[in-house]
Description:
Layout: E1 16-18, E2 29-31, E3 34-40, E4 43-48, E5 51-55, E6 68-69, H1 78-85, E7 89-91, H2 102-107, E8 115-117, H3 124-131, E9 137-139, E10 145-149, E11 152-159, E12 169-176, E13 179-185, H4 192-195, E14 203-207, H5 222-247, E15 251-255, E16 259-260, H6 283-292, E17 305-308, E18 312-315, H7 320-328, H8 330-350, H9 359-372, H10 375-381, E19 384-389, E20 392-397, E21 402-405, E22 413-417, H11 419-428, H12 433-436, E23 444-447, H13 453-459, H14 464-481, E24 493-495, E25 498-500, H15 511-514, E26 515-518, E27 521-524, E28 529-532, E29 549-551
Parallel strand pairs: 5-7, 7-8, 8-9, 13-14, 14-15, 19-22
Antiparallel strand pairs: 1-2, 3-4, 3-17, 4-5, 6-16, 10-11, 11-12, 12-13, 17-18, 19-20, 20-21, 22-23, 24-25, 25-29, 26-27, 27-28
Helix pairs in contact: 7-8, 10-13, 10-14
Amino acid sequence: MPDTTFHTTFHTTFHTTFRHDLPHDRQRLYPAGVRATSIGHAGILIETSAGSILCDPWFEPAFFGGWFPFPRNDQLSADLHERIEQADFLYVSHLHGDHHDKAWLDQHLRRDIPILLPGFPTREQRRTLQEHGFTNFVETSDTEELEIAPGLKIAIHIESSITDGPGGDSALVVIADDAILVNQNDCRTNDLGQLAAHGPVDLHWLQFSGAIWYPMVYEMDDAQKQHQCAAKVNAQFARAMRYVEKIDARAVVPSAGPPCFLDPDLFGLNMIDGDELSIFPDQTTFLAMLNDSERDGVMNIPGTTIEIGDAISSTHPMPDAQVEAIFNNKRAYLEQYQADWLPWLHDMKADWKALDIDLLAELQNWWQPLLEMAPTLCSMVGANVVINAGDLPIVIDFPNAEVRRHDGEQHGFRFDIPRDLVEAVTAQRAVDWSNSLLLSCRFTAWREGEFNEYVYNFLKSLSRERIKRAEAEVVRKLEIAAGGGDHVDEADIQIGNYVVQRRCPHRDADLEAFGEIQDGEFVCTLHGWRFDCDTGACLTSPTETPLRIRRASL
Length: 554
């Protein structure tokens, strides 16, 4: 493990007040206003005069050592470490490994720290945190303000579609000391007005960079992959800018990415020169876009503290020249970071070994009952999916709800994954393979046609609780497409020269906020899905419900 002693730091003096409503052993100095300190990736320590909230602490590499925080956060000051571990409240936005750091949570924080719990449809997150030994939970309701300490209010907004993780995702609004901070991280809320409904926003933290394996792992030629990477980056930036425009905060903080990749097998996924086959631009690119749009963006690295007052000011934990060197000499920075962590990566990989399990039988016993519970989802996949787990070829026969050894049958989708990784997540009974396995980017994929979200919805829903929700969601979508369900009475809207339905067929995104015409196609920038302007057919996934669209009358 690398040395975590921090080098020379620059500290800022803050005006402070003393809290008297905490137990004696919890009393300490607090800032008179709101300050937010980056602790890496989506991690923030929010400190107010009424108490502090620790958000999404992530320190241990995630996804089979595929993802590391960028810039590195293994050299934070001792003072900041102490403030992190003595926080008054903990907020974990969702269960992905770069937000819910199981290894770190198991070793840090007191077990009775109050946890701000998003109001997800299931109790999966609460159960997971209880497995760490945490005992104190503050229940919240979607979008509703709650005073958690005198003078400190919060509201948690949830996103619970299967696409964004059936365990749910969430954003946090903090209201204290005459300031409002929105920690959106990578939560793709459909209703932008809700996040701004609590009052004028001072500081807006949000994701701008990629957080998926597509298209890097797919079998396609480099020219096509480069085109798809560029399209993905453009969609990511367009979505982020929609949030920036609608929330209209005084200052924006690029957050929740990008990760970096230190394993030599994955190092090429880092975007350094700009021409890599990658969807992971860093914050300098997005800050330039904010500047071009005459928006105030704030550079942050782990240890950067941002104060909200009459002006919004920031202080880095090192001289500006050293901050600039991280990005201007990015390859050298990453190579040093990599050298420090190579022993850890070597030891981690040494622990990968074949387990003494009958993998096919385990998957049959686990997955076939789930397939039987989701006949509508299976029909929307409508094809065989092959998983080559090393030397073991397995087919998921969605039309017949069967799992068996692949014997050369025709298939529409294929994943080639090291067997030891498949065995590991099988032994763990990992309920979300997109989180536990696929985000590692340690696999290759192929598909015969276009994207089919239901393949991934199944791989994200590997429990009875999750598969019930996945099946219910596809049934609901089909009902809406048939003329029933939500939003049927909403008036159409005009985007450019076209009149379209108000809600995207994919995930109900408000197209007045997220819809635009790009290169003769209609695009919902929330998830980057594209539709034919003449027919409404979905160009991203043929199984998707068509968009209702027509040319506006002249």
